[in-house]
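Figure 6 in text form: structure in, sequence out.
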């Protein structure tokens, strides 16, 4: 009976779900813990001087969180990023609910831990500054958990932020973050960096955005980062100062704003930028394909016709290197290679798909996608070859192989 129940749970909760949920929960926890922890020590002890130091702490938290969890999940760590990936076709919709749930729970847990560590100091700060938790004045301590507009730490006579402006600021900031993530991870972007340093660059992007926008809205950019700790603050005694906040509109500004920014960036990328990059990688590359050797011809002992017979003793391996998630050009390159392979006898041409940053990709020094390697020779770098082109390259290689074996 116990075995039957276990099998039922295995069917209900797949390994993919467990991995994704765990990765997003852990990653968001790490990100939020370092981020709101830096805000807490700044408010309580003036540990960091200036906005840049706090912004760098957020950026470091983002980078560490991605490095720690990208082998488990997609390391989105942000509902706006997850929604953008779904909108752009990079992630199936079925993953979105448990990604969002994990992100909010991770952020809530981080808020709870930060409070547990600093609760005594928070109480002392409130006592010294004559702050009663739950009143309007307690926004000075509530800002350690959720964001507020205008930033409570900004000069009161200078910061003037309306709800519509706050919404636009959070939408803009999240749009910049998400479009940068797309560009840094897009296989068709021949100028993208190695995947080993992408988390650092994403963290620096967060740092830069916070450095510009935080004086206005504290630069949330992440619905889970705001709502999780804010919900804990609500339960820990801040009440209506936490939800809905003294100015109201927290849901509009810090949840809808980032989600809107994510969707807009996904549409801009998938409808405008990605097609432009795809066209460029098909017409410009660091290395050109070798000459095409005329019409596809029959080989000794075999045929080039689709579904032919009489296979030769020779075999060819075609490696197609793309990005993860794959760009449109990478997918097209793989399709063309598979179609070309179908022209040959079964098993004569084997097509393998690999990530450009996998071990085999590094061994072959692949830095641009899509890259096509035929029999150990790069025949296309940063461009898509047609079915006919690949078939003719394979034909020539088989002819050479046959000539060598007959010599």
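Output sequence:
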């Amino acid at each position: 009976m116990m075995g039957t129940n276990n099998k039922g749970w295995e069917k209900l909760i797949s390994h993919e779900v467990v991995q994704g949920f765990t990765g997003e929960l852990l990653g968001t926890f790490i990100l939020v813990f370092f981020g709101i922890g830096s805000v807490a020590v700044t408010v309580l002890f003036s540990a960091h001087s200036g906005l840049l130091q706090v912004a760098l702490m957020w950026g470091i938290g983002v980078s560490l969180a991605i490095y720690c969890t990208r082998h488990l999940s997609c390391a989105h760590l942000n509902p706006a990023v997850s929604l953008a990936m779904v909108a752009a076709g990079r992630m199936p919709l079925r993953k979105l609910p448990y990604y969002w749930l994990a992100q909010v729970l991770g952020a809530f847990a981080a808020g709870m831990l930060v409070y547990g560590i600093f609760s005594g100091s928070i109480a002392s700060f409130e006592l010294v500054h004559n702050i009663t938790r739950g009143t309007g004045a307690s926004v000075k301590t509530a800002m350690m958990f959720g964001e507020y507009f205008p930033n409570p730490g900004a000069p009161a006579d200078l910061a003037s932020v309306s709800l519509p402006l706050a919404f636009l600021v959070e939408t803009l900031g999240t749009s910049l973050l998400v479009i940068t993530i797309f560009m840094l991870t897009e296989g068709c972007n021949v100028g993208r960096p190695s995947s080993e340093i992408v988390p650092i660059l994403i963290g620096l992007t967060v740092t830069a955005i916070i450095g510009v926008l935080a004086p206005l809205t504290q630069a949330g950019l992440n619905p889970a980062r705001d709502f999780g700790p804010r919900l804990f603050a609500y339960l820990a005694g801040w009440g209506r100062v936490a939800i809905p906040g003294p100015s109201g509109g927290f849901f509009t500004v810090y949840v809808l704003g980032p989600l809107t920014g994510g969707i807009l960036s996904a549409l801009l990328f998938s409808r405008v930028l990605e097609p432009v990059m795809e066209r460029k990688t098909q017409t410009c590359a660091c290395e050109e394909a070798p000459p095409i050797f005329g019409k596809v011809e029959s080989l000794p002992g075999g045929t080039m016709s689709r579904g032919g017979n009489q296979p030769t003793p020779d075999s060819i391996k075609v490696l197609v290197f793309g990005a993860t998630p794959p760009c449109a050009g990478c997918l097209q390159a793989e399709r063309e290679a598979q179609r070309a392979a179908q022209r040959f006898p079964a098993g004569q041409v084997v097509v393998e798909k690999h990530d450009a940053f996998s071990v085999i990709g590094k061994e072959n020094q692949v830095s641009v996608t899509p890259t096509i390697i035929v029999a150990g020779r790069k025949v296309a770098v940063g461009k898509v070859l047609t079915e006919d082109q690949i078939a003719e390259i394979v034909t020539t290689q088989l002819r050479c192989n046959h000539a060598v074996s007959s010599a």
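Caption detail: The chain has two domains: 9-279, 316-406.
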